[in-house]
Amino acid sequence: MAGTDAEGYGGFHDKVNNHYFRTFGSAVLIALIGTGIDASMPKSSTLATQETASDAARRNFAEGFGRVAEQTISRNLNVQPTLEIRPRYKFNVLVDQDMVFPGSYRN
After folding, report:
1. Are residues 92 and 4 in contact, defined by beta-carbon separation less than 8 angstroms?
2. How far does CA 17 lie from the centroid of its chain?
3. Is 23 domain-assigned?
4. Looking at the domain assignment, is residue 73 inside a domain?
5. Is residue 26 assigned to a domain?
6. 59 contacts 22 by C-beta, under 8 angstroms
7. What is the C-alpha to C-alpha distance for residues 17 and 98, in angstroms, rounded to an integer?
8. Positive or negative, the Cα torsion across 50, 54, 57, 60?
9. What does the pLDDT look like over 36-62, one tens digit per residue?
10. With a threshold of 0.70, does the pTM exceed it?
């Protein structure tokens, strides 16, 4: 069974929520996290500079946190639009197969 309009065309047409704030908000968060990770990475001026244990820990934490945060936030980038049907929306139901009501119409 499918929902139709008064002329028999399939589908509903009402308010569409494209989730723009959720999608673009996620993109901004990914960019901010990437910037924070770059800022937290220790910078060395020469190749002979030895990395300290705290620098290595900070770098590993930043990279790991960045990967997890990006994967989590990236889920919001693939959100399908939502069709919002308001109350009292009129529609027809097209019945394209037999409906059986056992017991309802017995004598």
Report:
1. yes
2. 12
3. no
4. yes
5. no
6. no
7. 35
8. negative
9. 777 776 666 555 567 777 777 777 777
10. no
